[in-house]
Amino acid sequence: MSRINVVFFASLREKLAMAEYQLEVELPLSVADLKQVLAKEIDTGHHLLEKTVHSSVDFEFTRDHDMIPSSAHEIAFFPAVTGG
User: What does the alpha-carbon distance between residue 13 and residue 19 come to, in Å, rounded to a whole number?
Assistant: First the structure.
């Protein structure tokens, strides 16, 4: 089992009512699978399953099908950002 720090940004942080979450999980694991685990563990975690939620692993952008390596320390989730 690996202990990872999961952080949430912007409106996602508000929806989940938390900025970070500590989790022990068996890695490697896909980003999509981690979202499912978090959706079950966090009361308002269903927001992580929205299609507009993006992620990064140790500051590298990832997609749902990407695997989180056993060496990972931090996974971040954030909403899509638009700008002008």
Answer: 5
Maximum Cα–Cα distance across the chain: 43
CA–CA dist 24, 34 (Å, integer):
11
Question: What is the pTM assigned to this prediction?
Answer: 0.92
Tell me whether strands 60-62 and 67-68 are parallel, antiparallel or unpaired: unpaired
Query: What six digits make up the tokens of 12?
Result: 């996602």
**Span between the terminal Cα atoms of the chain, in Å:** 43
**Banded pLDDT at 81 (limits 50, 70, 90):** confident
Block residue for tokens 């959706």: 39
Asked whether the beta carbons of 68 and 42 are under 8 A apart, the reply is no
- Mind listing the pLDDT tens digit for each residue in 43-57? 999 999 999 999 999
